[in-house]
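Reagents: none. Just compute today. Ig-like domain-containing protein.
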Amino acid sequence: MLNTHPRRWSAVLGLALVASAIGGLAAAAPSFTGDPTTLDWYVGDNATVADPARSDVPLRLYDADGAVVTSGTVAAGLPAFAAADGAVRADDTHATLFVHAAQSGTAAGAWPGVQATGTDRFSGPGAVTVPAPLAGHPVVSTAGGYGLADVVQDFSSSGQGSFGGVYELRLRTSAASKGVSDRYASAYVKVTGADWAVVAGPEAGVEPAATHTTGTAPATSSYGKAFTVRATVTGVSAAGGTVAVKTGATTLATKALDADGIIDIPIGALALAPGTHALTVAFSGTADAAASQGALSVKVVAARSTTTGRLAAVKIKRTKAPKITAQVTAPGVPAAAFTGSFTVYDGSKAIKKVALTAANGGRLTITLPKRKAGTHRIKVVFSGNAKVAASTSPTYKLVVT
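Predicted 3D structure written out:
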């Protein structure tokens, strides 16, 4: 490709390509005269006014093997190639793909759009390599171009009316000697939720019903403990679509919506670190129900831990150093999360402090300083960390003789 940067055009520039250069080729002069904003094809109702630049040549999408593709997911982007069934303009050698947002009540010539790919040579020396079924067709590679996810994001507030989710793919051809043709081959795709499909055209239909999404969850949970978000979507009349629970741009969990519009979505025990989290509950929408989202807040506290100790011997001579094996645990928390320190006390006095690393798995055998003859009260204190709270072991009796 000679140009890999998407370029957004106003309606007039999208048709005429005035004073622009695509793929290093000079732009074609417009084939109309006068002020376009006074012409029917620019200001008229789309239902009655056709775009004079739209040719009768169909445009199709193909995979890397040259098979026609008519549907896919928005996240995966467009298939490998877009190709016209025949010549858009005689003797042209290059092709470029544009995407325009269909708008009901607005002439197609005024639909806003973007340049979706660079410009590929499809004829002559240096032509782009294509599968055998596409040989000789005006074709452009869509790899690395402007995807449908970008289109949906850019035109989400463009006011498509009853043509919501419908986009027109326009392939224009060009030649070094003639610039870019204002005529184009055309195809329509409709985006519904996370999917897209080729459609015959932007026929006005029933607007998806408005929905309202809310979410509830426990006000407080703890690290290492799973919890449930209950999502309620009103305005839906049948099962379909999904509900995702997100924190920022990160999706924690997704579940298909039931027909009654209420689902419980489990959130993993380790999905959120301790802290207060603003969560979004987002319904994807369907052909009959519009997308919507709600918000909630969940506070996650550090996991409650339990520390224990086991003396190697409960009675020893004063000439020997006592040993104690300390261990800290917490429900649902992996062993590597127990970092910090163990401090061993004899009564109220700290007599030994050791570091606890992820590699220790929450367990250490600690050699203590030699003790004087008598009875000693030994306990272990775990320091805690950001994910696991501090805790103290029971007191253990050590007799030194």
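The chain has three domains: 7-199, 212-301, 306-400.
Action item: order primers for follow-up constructs.
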